[in-house]
Amino acid sequence: MTQNIHDHRILILDFGSQYTQLIARRVRELGVYCELWAWDVTEEQIKSFNPQGIILSGGPESVTEENSPRAPEYVFNAGVPVLGVCYGMQTMAEQLGGKVQGSDKREFGYAQVEVVKPNDLLANIEDAISGEGNALLDVWMSHGDKVIAIPDGFETVALTPSCPHAAMVNTDKQFYGVQFHPEV
Predict the structure, then answer these.
(1) 181 is catalytic
(2) For the chain, what are the domain ranges?
(3) Which of 35, 114, 146, 180 has an alpha carbon 20 to 30 Å from 168's alpha carbon atom?
(4) Helix (H) or strand (E) holding 66
(5) 86, 114, 143, 163: the active-site residue
(6) pLDDT in the model for residue 8
(7) Is 86 a catalytic residue?
(8) Residues 6, 30: contact at Cβ < 8 Å?
C-alpha cells in the first residue's frame, strides 16, 4: 500500500535566502511534500494549505532594521511545529520577545557548533565530541546578526564561541531555531 505524499505537508516561508531551494530539496528527499511560498502570505492562505509544520528560511535582511520581513503572526498560533533557519530563527526570536543585534564578528562558512543541552532537535547527531563530552556539529554559517536573548519558554541547546544561541528550542510549543544552515 502506498502512502499519499500529501498526508504530511510542510510549508516553507521564503525570506530570500540563497539556500531556500535546498531546504525544500532536503524535505522532499525525506519523502515529505512541501511547498515554498513568499514570507508575506496571509493567515487564510496558510490555513488553506493546512501544513503539519512550517519552516522559516534564512534571508539577506536584518531583523534589526525597521520594516524588515516578519513571519505572519498566525505562524506562531497555528499549533504546528515551526523551524526557523538563520534569519528565520532571528525573526522568530524577535517576534516572540527575544532580542537580536548585529554581531561584531560575521560568521560565514564552516563553523563548529557545540550541543550544550540534550534535545529532540539535535538528538543523535554528532561529528565529534568536545572535551566536556558534548556533541560537536560541523555546520555552515552565513549571518551578520545574532540572537542575544531568547524568548521566554525557549532554551539554548547549542552555541559557538561567537554565537551564544546557535540553536534554541521551545519543546512545549514545538518551536525550534538554528542559526546555522542544516540544508547546506
Answers:
(1) yes
(2) 5-178
(3) 35
(4) none
(5) 86
(6) 86
(7) yes
(8) no
Q: Which three cell numbers stand for residue 175?
A: 518551536
Grid coordinates given for 126: 554528532
Contact in structure between 71 and 79 (CB atoms under 8 Å) = no
How many angstroms separate the first and last alpha carbons of the chain? 33
CA distances from residue 176 to 3, 48, 63, 128 in whole angstroms, order as listed? 27, 23, 18, 23
| Helices first, then strands: H and E counts in the chain | 3, 10
Tens digit of each residue's pLDDT (9 = 90 or more) over 38-87: 999 999 999 999 999 999 999 999 999 999 999 999 999 999 999 999 99
The stretches in the chain having pLDDT less than 70 are 1-6, 105
Q: Kindly state the cell numbers that stand for 49.
A: 494549505
CA-to-CA distance for 161 and 43, rounded, in angstroms?
38
Catalytic residue among 61, 94, 114, 183: 183
